[in-house]
Amino acid sequence: MMKAPAAGDREAVVERLGDIAARLRVDALRMIHKSQSGHPGGSLSAADFFAALYFHVLNIDPGNPEWPDRDRVILSKGHACPILYAALANRGYFSKDHLATLRQIDGILQGHPDMRKTPGVDMTTGSLGVGLAAGVGMALAARMRAKSYVTYVVIGCGEMDEGIIWEAAMAASKYQLGNLVVLCDFNKLQLDGWNRDIMPLEPIEAKWRAFGWHTQRIDGHDISAILNAIDTALAARELPSIIIADTIKGKGVSFMENQCDWHGRAPDDEELRRAEAELSPKGRTKS
Amino acid sequence: MNASTREGYGEELVELGARNEDVVVLEADISVSTKTCYFARRFPQRFVNVGVAEQNEVMIAAGMATCGLLPFVSTYAVFASMRCCEQIRSFVCYPRLNVKFGVSHGGLTACTDGVTHQATEDIAIVRAMPNMTVLVPSDYHMTKAAVRAAASIDGPVYIRLCRDPLPVIYDSSVRLEIGRSVTLREGDDVTIIAAGDMVSAALDAVEMLSAESVHARLIDMPCIKPIDEEAIIKAARETRTLVTVENHQIAGGLGSAVAEVVVENAPVPVRRLGLRDTFGESGQYALLLQKYRFSARDIANACAKAVREKKR
Prior knowledge:
The complex is a heterodimer. By secondary structure, chain A is α/β, with parallel strands linked by helices.
């Protein structure tokens, strides 16, 4: 693990990660625009913790994606893979040229993450709910083989409707998997509408606590809060941890924010241009 | 002497676990029934009981396999193939992860438990999945060989087991070669191709036929995918008529796999015995086989009829 930097350093780190998150958002939108297919809303809401993970937290080696001691990341909400691919490309796992091939035939970037085709993808995911259980397996494997890596699983809010999430939650608790950290991208929107209308989830923190987890609830767009929460999660050695990150679907692009319509729709040329302007350094200071 | 294939599975897992520290066993609360309880007793640190949560069990195994462990997943065949169908297809077979499934109560061998516990479509389901190897061992020793064969290859393997004790056909020297069958009886009038518990029934049928001067060849097909095309084509050419028998629906299982090879390579009549698009029911195993018409007597009758029609 990277050491927690001193307060002054932390500020610089947070600022740098904010710039990276904006770059990842632009890359994700360009990919989706180019392929005219993909999921922008849930990619943008998860951008800040992907920046924090891949550019600060994770113990990884992009030159050696199969390194047995690496930290693992599972994107259980696999449809948000444009943000994962943007992070992997910018971190050096593969050339950024590939980003233009999202969802295209013979490409390495499938519509949902494929561990055999994309360097740096630790688990194939796509149908919702299954990533957490795979993470339990990786965390158990670490214990059985006396490895110190950490397994991070990014889940969406809608996929907490799936029963297997709670099966996995019980198993992680039974085995006291302190080496398992879940980041929940709690943007409160799912494909058909608001969670509260489709399938109410609250009180969500109480549910996870009742399942035996260490819980935290943070602003998922406050990078400093994300870093602190991960430190706190890792300090809870006896318990699996979940960080419920309150986020905004489509975060960073005004006309996409909190719009269910942008769950799985690609921007046109004009929309991409406006989004890029809002995510530029100048645009970001304005907002 | 009789012994169940699930017993062979449980015992071989312990031997494998002693040889290979990567072996882990996952269970969904029926270890006493699948016989993974022996492994649990010997290697508690490498045994994961997830409770009654089979989908979770498969995904945990998938995660472990990505980290280099060699997980064996046990439950009943009916749950593995259907409740966990998507987990096995999309997250084990698609990424070609090294997960093995040792699943019991195949076919009507969950006899008195009734339809919810009888796996009668499982082979059709898992056989359709790319990257999957499908093994249906016919006795205790072949089951132990199947566990060793599964562990020796990289990729998903489905081993279908039976509940009840079966006659012991082989000895401890038997090997299961992936993609290869075993010809148990030579004959030129008709070929019976059987798998799992139906192999002993077919052996009885061969004896009955012999008394009627019909010389049946009997092929034990412990590996249904990849299937032994060479042996099937040879049998089709030499005996000109085939009878398949399986404790499964006749759609999609062994009979279908054999018929696919025959029609593409050496078309001859193929009679398929098994469940004919119907569910089973609770009842004694032997009585169920009679009622649903794939007992030893039914196999012998089908062969006799096949031979008569061939001579016309």
